[in-house]
Amino acid sequence: MQKPISKPPIRWHIPVFLAPAFIIYTAIMVIPLLGTIQLSLFSDIDGEQVFVGLANFKTLLGDPRWAQQFWNALVNNTWFFIVHMLVQNPIGILLAALLSSNKLRMKAFYRTSIFIPTILSFVIVGFAWKLILSPIWGVAPSMLDAVGLKSLFAPWLGKEEYALTTLALISVWQFVGIPMMLIYAAMLSIPDEILEAAECDGITGISQFWKVKLPLILPSIGIISILTFVGNFNAFDLIYSVQGALAGPNFATDVLGTFMFRTFFGFQLQLGDPNMGSAIASIMFVIILIGVSIYLFGIQTRLRRYQF
Amino acid sequence: MGSLSLKNIRKSFGNVEVIKGIDLDVKEGELVIFVGPSGCGKSTLLRIIAGLETETSGTIEIDGNTVNGQSPSMRGISMVFQTYALYPHLTVRDNMSLGLKQAKRPKDLIKKRVDFASAMLSLDDYLERRPAELSGGQRQRVAIGRAIVRQPKLFLFDEPLSNLDAALRVNTRLEIASLHRQLSATMVYVTHDQTEAMTLADRIVVLNNGVIEQVGTPMELYNKPKNKFVAGFIGSPQMNFIPASCLEMSDAETVGIRPENITFDGAKADLTGKVSHIEQLGGDTNIYADCGEAGLICIRLFGQHEAEVDSTISLHFDRDKMFKFDKDGNTIN
Amino acid sequence: MKHTSFKAILVASTVFGSAGLSFAQDVTLTIESWRNDDLSIWQDKIIPAFEAKHPNIKLKFTPSAPAEYNAVLNSKLEAGSAGDLITCRPFDASLSLYEANYLAPLTDLEGMSNFSDVAKSAWITDDGSTPFCVPMASVIHGFIYNKEAFEDAGVEVPETEEEFFAALDAIKEKGNYIPLAMGTNDQWEAATMGYNNIGPNYWKGEEGRNALIKGEQKLTDEPWVAPFRQLAKWKDYLGDGFEAQTYPDSQNLFTLGRAAIYPAGSWEISGFNTNADFEMGAFNPPVPNEGDTCYISDHTDIGLGMNANTEHPEAAKTFLNWVGSEEFASLYANALPGFFPLSKTAVEMEDPLAQEFISWREKCEPTIRSTYQILSRGTPNLENDTWNASAAVIKGTETPEEAGKRLQEGLASWYEPQQ
Amino acid sequence: MSVDIKTTARSQVTFRAIAAHAILITYTLIALFPVFVIVINSFKSRKAIFREPLSVPTPETFSLKGYETVLKQGDFVLYFQNSLVVTVASLTMVLLFGAMAAFALSEYRFRGNLLTGLYLAIGIMIPIRLGTVAILEMMVASGLVNTLTALILVYTAQGLPLAIFILTEFMQGISDDLKNAGRIDGLSEYTIFGVLVLPLIRPALATVAVFTMIPIWNDLWFPLILAPAEETKTITLGAQVFIGQFVTDWNAVLASLSLAIIPVLVLYLIFSRQLIKGITAGAVK
Fold first, then answer.
1. Its pTM surpasses 0.80
2. A308 to chain B nearest CA, in Å?
3. Which CATH superfamily is domain C14-138+301-350 in?
4. Does the keyword S-adenosyl-L-methionine apply (chain C) (predicted)?
5. Residue A182 belongs to domain spanning
6. Residue spans per domain, chain C
7. Residue among D178, D185, D195, D200 with most chain B CBs within 10 A, to mutate
8. C296: three-class secondary structure by DSSP
């Protein structure tokens, strides 16, 4: 017979469930990152780390040499993001809309093929596109030649005016699978009854997409936008593997990620400056945090989630 | 079989108090039903009894033992859920025996009990199937079987019939009733459906806003509701409430009259109204009449009757069967 | 289920954990390097030769990709996980490591006596008192050319600026070869193989370089703008789409026989020998006028230092002494034609191209790359800016004068002698 | 030819299907083209790569030289094995620990629940790479440098925030009744999690697995910093070294790139069936 217990026992299982994730995440991610943010408040003066408050941020935004690089990177980064929003997500939605039509055959094949670039490493993606777009190797020029458009060819990756857009498009090529998958799933989860009701009302084909499906997948599009935002403002690898840490030509493809990397770890003869690098990293964090907050408090609340 | 006693049970979620001091005794072998509108706290109370929710204060005794703080499985209860909650990866037999296996009971005992329950619920043919291969009614029977096998001191039912269609609901209701008789088990049953409550319960507990409005046998509640809430909640179609002023009665704020206690009688008319809708149920007929300030009034007549929509009718109320309520909604005797 | 999976993780982590421990009693030295191209040479030639003499010391050569080397090495040093021996970039990158106490002073290392002061200059404190890396090799800049292409166009090896452009014109006229193999996509190619290749002839090698460091000359002065003017003229001789042409593209263009002249560093020699199936020659950067003294960039490029925190300082020193020896010099020079030993004793080289390059040391004045010593210590970084400017000048997006002005402003913003 | 209304309607449908296929095929070609170029050229001789990059290998141009070089030089089997161990171990830990935390967050009401959830989600926004130096110091201090354990720990930390975020959302959809039924049957919270909940969120786990696996498999940075030793090299790092090592040996580069595609493709195919199910079931709504 149980003895009567007056107080509920401590629910040990809650800390037990949380502990592994909490400990690993805190120890290996949070503490090092806090260390990085802390670094941004210090400066190396004669080999000593000295607390300088916000001086590094002042340099970054105030000193014309730093500020010029910073704003260049930020503007490029914004353009990089805009290209993704304008190209990647609409293509993703289009592909998903096509894939979700009922009677289509070979769905799995298309889905898998289009997702393949997403699983490739940046090393492969960078190398492949550099080769294809290379004026020397001649894949792109000879393909354009074949359709009589050779004159359109330009060494896109080497021209300041095209390089960033080209890279953004490569990145779109690589990642279009993610919005496609998520939107596809969202479309599949629209109940058939709603679509059947639309058919009965004579809303079919493209107008069905605009009038019925699109409003219902808006929350998913919102999520994708914010994932794209976070991803783009953390972008680094693709640009690094195609254009190197100096993000050429003439910094035309420099984004916050490459700027931070170069500053933090140094490059070639340029010595690493972890303090300034951390300052850039902290600003990146703030930018992403602001973007996410705008989304969470400004946009998401207005996107209605429909109960099916 | 055991008794249940609740003493001053309170429960708050954050600053919101959802159970506001409940005292209740359930005798051995009794089937007690909690009814109330959604959000009244009836499910929370059931879950507190089960130990799935921790009470903020108060004492729970099952079979004379205080069980506060004990885990659900130690309380000697079993529970049947609205969504069946069968383990999708286990067969019917394993679903029923899991609790006993967990308690390390001997194999032959488990088998005996499962066989007993499956025979009782005619589940013998389905013992090796998985839940996904069963119909809704079969699944609910498995859930009930799982409860029986544990031979609990106390059965708890959480709206067990809500997910079934109308015909099955009646059948299963009968099954539960016969189960109660056969096992003479103590049962606590939660529903929002007063018909279910009336047909099944030994005693009904009407809950509203986290407090007990009234406890009693179905007929006690029907005949002697303590207040307007209980009067309105028990009985179908619902009791008509009429402002006392319309009937020129000064000793009450509101009067209540059940639809079956109204007759057509032009000579002794208490009110006149216009027929707005008729429901022909075959066995009886419900007529709804718009009586101006007195509101929409439902009249229940036995047998089949005809009436023209928009025709004017005179209503007579059986004065002996009228209820009077004061400003606070309490019944005036 | 839970228990077993935890156990599995525990077991797994101990298994992996032990993989990192060294198991031999012998000392094992790890060498950090960015020369991943040399991996097989170290494994097949250098390490066996050393281990044969010193059986108790094992060597492990662990290179990382050149672009990541600095970042990786700095992180490892900071965390204390770097190897025992560290391949040194010349000048400031290594000096800062020494100053941060990551590299050990090598003042009393015997092998050091085998090197001249010039050889040691890249890895010594500013006051010249303490060396911290053993000089391994230098690279010489010049031009490698395709002999068949020269025959085809009927041109001779150019000695002056004028002849150089005449030769380029002739090759272009003939149309069978792209005259110059160079791209601006990677930027450093334009600076290292362009500006610092031909530049010394204009700023007169060490004379100009030292004047710049002292603040006596400015980057806007003629000797420093003139090389940009030359580069600006190169544009017409480069291949289609050179803007997107990468360094490996240039190498391929040349070794596959499609380009006539390759502005080179001597380190290309071994790769070109394997990949090109035509005869190659080399010439030093043409001088502005006939009879001018020629200058070459004979750049101290690789040194080897000792991690100050190594657990095996004695073994590391043994190895460093060996690196300073004649045996190593000859082994290295012949294994890697194009990396020229810096030791005082002359080394016999078999490769004809390498012989050609090294022969310029006798007729021309050697210097090192203008931006490497002292001048790239601050922000903005002069070396990185020079990459950018050289590429821009070749592409024609910036005039030579503008480039000089921009570099000067950048340098003056932090370098006192120039202010 | 007589055309009645029915066939017009049908031909409209057919036309739409053809248009859909046309667009999808076009995009599929765009998606696969670069991969195709790399793979076909990896089987050609160096000259042929340069001369006709778009043609498939013919008997004259066919060459396995690149693959020979690759297989001779690096220990690709070992690299592959390392990558597999790291990826599978990190995935297991991310999925297990992530699901455990998500379960705690979605199942129990306790003080600080919301705060803990936010705290764990912040990691989605910051690349862990920013903390490299501190991580390396920590690994050195604990003697984990040049062990696969170091990589596994880092990737676990990196993958957890998104995993917890997705899984929490998903777990909220699991019937409370089922878990309560388990409690009444005397299952411990751990058993409820392991036996009842985990199997039900399989699709969500697959979704998380794919999103977590790709960056782990393809990561270059941490292998380079934390475990560059020959015994612990991952396949991506191995391939990268080839690119550095044979800048001009395109046979070897292309061969190593082609080899590096296969394993991640296989892993993806394993998870992809569950992936669609997972996203559909509302893992990322």
1. no
2. 18
3. Periplasmic binding protein-like II (3.40.190.10)
4. no
5. 65-306
6. 14-138+301-350, 140-298+367-418
7. D185
8. strand
